[in-house]
Amino acid sequence: MTLSRSEAAKVAAHTRWAFEADRRRATSAGTSAFLAKFEAQVDPDGLLSPEERAKRARNALSAHMTRIRANRKPKP
Question: Where in the chain are the domains?
Answer without folding.
Answer: 5-71
